[in-house]
Amino acid sequence: MFKQLQDMALFALVAERGSFTAAAQEAGLPKSSVSQRISQLEQQVGLRLLNRTTRKINLTFAGERYLVHCREMLDASERAEYALQRLRDNPSGRLRITCPAGIGATLLARMNTQFQRSFPDVVLEVSISDEVVDLVAAGYDVALRTGKPQDSSLIGRIIGYSPRVLVASPEYLDTHPLLEHPSQLTEHQCIVHRAWSEWVLQKGETYYRCDLPRLHTTDNLLYARECAQVGAGITLLPSFLVEESLESGELAIALPAWQPQGNDLYLVYPSRKLNSPALACYIDFIMKFSGISENYRKKQP
Predict the structure, then answer these.
(1) Rg (Cα) of the chain, in Å, rounded?
(2) Looking at the predicted structure, is the pLDDT value of residue 110 above 60?
(3) How far apart are CA 40 and CA 49, in angstroms?
(4) Are residues 170 and 187 in the same domain?
(5) Domain containing 249: what range?
(6) Is residue 298 over pLDDT 60?
(7) pLDDT at position 299
(8) b/e string for 24-41 if b means 16 or more Cβ within 10 A?
(9) Worst-scoring range by mean pLDDT, 12-16, 18-22, 23-27, 147-151?
(10) By the 8 A CB rule, do 93 and 278 touch?
(11) Given Cys at both, which of 38, 66, 252, 265 links 160, Cβ 3.0 to 4.6 Å?
């Protein structure tokens, strides 16, 4: 079918130029190839489309009717190309984005607001969830994620870095055994995000890995923060989620002498090539976004 479409376009060119020689020159093909392909097209449709003489060619009655449809096909191709060019010049359409709750309620909201001011014809459909979904299977165009993507088929580009802090309510810390070393965390009530079951803390050149009992787990960082604020225990959170709570005194830093490892923040999407204009603009916008705060500071090489 694809070859027939090409031959239909070639037939229309021959008919419009009035000769095999002129059509061959414009198509960049040998004259003999053009003549052979038109003959093959006639064999395929089962009717003669051109009457040939040594001096000129004329359309048969069937050729005249067939040319109408060939031109319609070419016009449709031109309209399709024009529509895509307009899309390239003025990105529009839908972008489906997925993002963890904490980032979605802060950084992503700010980025998307500024993006739509620059590209108002792009429709954003945003899913806020701490569940890591399969982008391709679920039909998402792009994701913001903490930590390097585990799927090697995805493109992951670092856009920043987020420190994490170990926090609890002041009341919890006052009424439970003094916490001086990470090894003591197993003796405390901990709210653990299921993606961070192992907490890695650093003091100078010393590292300590805490493999915590899963007595209270969640897939949502906002839930973990609320639990900590009401005295449910100690939890590990990105610093951007606890700034206000630390300032207001609702939360306090546990183990201040030990620094938890932070997370790289990644922009993740399925492919580098032939992305839609809307997605290409979104990727470029996010990579240049100037509103990444100190909590998302970019790592220096």
Answers:
(1) 31
(2) yes
(3) 11
(4) yes
(5) 164-261
(6) no
(7) 43
(8) beebebeeeebbebbeeb
(9) 147-151
(10) yes
(11) 265
More confident residue, 5 or 256: 256
> Which pLDDT tens digit goes with each residue over 250-294?
999 999 999 998 888 899 999 888 788 899 999 999 988 865 644
Nearest to residue 281, comparing CAs of 88, 63, 135, 65? 88
Please report, to the nearest 10 degrees, the dihedral formed by the alpha carbons of residues 6, 10, 12, 14 taken in order.
Answer: -170
Q: Please give the Cα distance from 296 to 278 (Å, whole number).
A: 24
- Other CB atoms within 10 Å distance of the CB of residue 202: 13
Please tell me the predicted confidence (pLDDT) of residue 300.
38
Look at the block and give the residue holding tokens 């001096």: 55
Identify residue 158 by its one-letter amino acid code: I
From 86-100, 120-134, 235-249, the region with the lowest mean pLDDT: 86-100
Domain assignment of residue 46, yes or no: yes
Strand positions, DSSP E, 121-225: 122-128, 142-146, 155-162, 164-168, 190-193, 198-203, 206-211, 217-218
In a domain, 290, yes or no: yes
Give kind and range of the element (H or E) at residue 110: helix 109-118
Token pair, residue 197, equals 């079951």
* pLDDT for the residue 271: 87
State the total domains in the chain: 3
Rounded alpha-carbon distances, angstroms, from residue 163 to 22, 104, 180, 238: 68, 17, 21, 6
CA-nearest of 123, 153, 157 to 143 is: 157
Report the pLDDT value the prediction gives residue 283, as an integer from 0 to 100. Answer: 93
- 81 domain-assigned: yes
User: How far apart are alpha carbons 209 and 231 in whole angstroms?
Assistant: 24
Tell whether 247 and 289 lie within a shared domain.
no
